[in-house]
Amino acid sequence: MLRAFSRSVALRTRAWPHAACAHRRGASGEARAPSPPADTHAGSPPPHLPPAADAMLRGVGQVLFCNSAATGGGLLFALSLADPLLALYASMGTAVAHAVSAGARLDSSARADGLASYNGCLVGCAFSVFLPMAGVGPMGVPLATAVGAAASPFVAAVLGPSMGRVPQWTLAFNAVALCALLHARPLVGATAPAPATAWELASAPLRGVSQIFVADSATCGAAVLAVVAATYSPACAGALLVGSATGSAVGALVGADSAEIAHGLWGFNPALTSLAVAVFFTPTRQSAALAVGGAAATAVAFGAAKAVCGSFAAPALTVPFCAVATMCYLLAGRMPGLALAAAPHSPERNRADADR
């Protein structure tokens, strides 16, 4: 069973995640999932930012569906508040995935939007936390991160055609990271943390947001929300918080361990599902209900996935999010009031586009 672990001992668990957007064809004809259109105001990079740096920062932002270099840079700062080493490995994974994608001449448009590197970012986050728990030494973690991040663009390229019109979400990250973690078994011998305090339970939604990047920090979670709201979309930040709070509440209702809830483990997958609905659907009352209902369903799926993966001493990562977000996406057009946005970006822009 996946528990929350403290940073200095085997109690240091930060669970994870992205996703892509509506299906289209790249210039080379290969199937891919594109990003929301790039911002042209607050989220735009300064004119002097090199294209590679711009693309890599967008890759960090794409973990939260934000096609913005400013958002990516802010998120790295938020991660550094939890653990500078985490931010370093997130940067390393992003850079390696981007470089390999460029060297292999994979879809250049997707690479420029950060879609070739967000899975690498998550690989770096996950490996920086879980591999040391499995006894991997200080030289082994960066090596594993480089190999895993390098593999992620190719895994994504293979998955693309099989996904049809459905986004890939974080499937490539899960495939790469779980292959390593099922072998490493980082949760062997893990002990349960102390019961949660009232303050820890109250801050669970913020920790859930931070757990998207495998961080266990309410401060980091609050910073992530502030960055998304300031550089990309206040509504996206709200969707993250509502999803995490919903998942935490479901965990409490099903009798989950209070420490698991307090450390955000029941919140991060639901937060991503809620955000995915907010980004990909035209805002309506029905889509708002789907965001909350999808978050609740994701929390239930997390409980099941945690039990299965825990039996192999491995974390469930973002498998529950990928499963439920796919089902939510496929509901578009099948129920009144549920329609995909023409150009997925954020609730604010999706609404403006629908009103034109």
Automatic annotation (TrEMBL):
Residues 23-50 are annotated as: Disordered. It holds the Pfam family UT. Keywords: Cell membrane, Membrane, Transmembrane, Transmembrane helix. The chain crosses the membrane at residues 116-134, 140-159, 261-281, 288-305, 311-332. It is found in: Cell membrane. Coiled coil: none annotated. It is a multi-pass membrane protein. InterPro entries: Ammonium/urea_transptr, Urea_transporter. GO terms for cellular component: plasma membrane. It catalyses: urea(in) = urea(out). Its main location: membrane. One of its GO terms (molecular function) is urea transmembrane transporter activity. Belongs to the urea transporter family. This is Urea transporter. The lineage of its organism: Eukaryota, Haptista, Haptophyta, Pavlovophyceae, Pavlovales.
